[in-house]
Protein: ABC transporter ATP-binding protein
Organism: Paracoccus suum
Amino acid sequence: MTAGSVTTGPVVAARGVDLTFPTSDGPVHALKGVDLTIARGEFVSFIGPSGCGKTTLLRCIAALEAPTSGSLLVNGMPADDARRARAYGYVFQAPGLYPWRTIAANIALPLEIMGFSRAERQARTARVLDLVDLAGFGGKYPWQLSGGMQQRASIARALSFDADLLLMDEPFGALDEIVRDRLNEALRALWAQTGKTMLFVTHSIPEAVYLSTRIVVMSPRPGRIIDIIDSPLPAERPLEIRDSADFIAVAHRVREGLRAGHSYD
């Protein structure tokens, strides 16, 4: 399989996934009994209290962590095989841009590592810069861009090799509310335009409800899935939709799920 190739069947299929970390103070149970199927083209947000395992689950999907037990397939193959096949792009909490490289050179870095020709790197970089509304900024350095623009560059880098799956770990968590709202709108538009499957970790209930086609609510450690909520919201979502009855009802259900999670053993 090559980067950007598409398979039939679910993008992610987790069955009974457990993960326990050994520590000097004894085992830490990060995930327990996680069952989840994610179809192609979904936008799925993971929300839960700090330490609930939502980032750990994302890292398992990316083969950055290995479950202790259970089954986890990404594009129909073991997660480690999907990683080697470059089946996903990963956006971290911090942009992680090299300050000595221009924005275009940062975006092109994975393409260099993958052996793309110079012409192909330039073409792909120009395309994704346009996708994230940074056309004309490729020659700038990270320190010359705002925090929101840097994070958009990080998203462009993850999109550059055209993987079908985008994993995002609280990419907007450090940004102020106004910038975050703007990037939420931009990300929804990007998802609609590209058709990518997006998995998004967040602490924000409004962000999860606004962005997602489904919301996965997780309990405190060990991380279990408390609720999976199918969004009733329309595809077109102006920010004003947050005042609608449907939006408020979904946000209430998420909040109730988070509260219920604290009653688990």
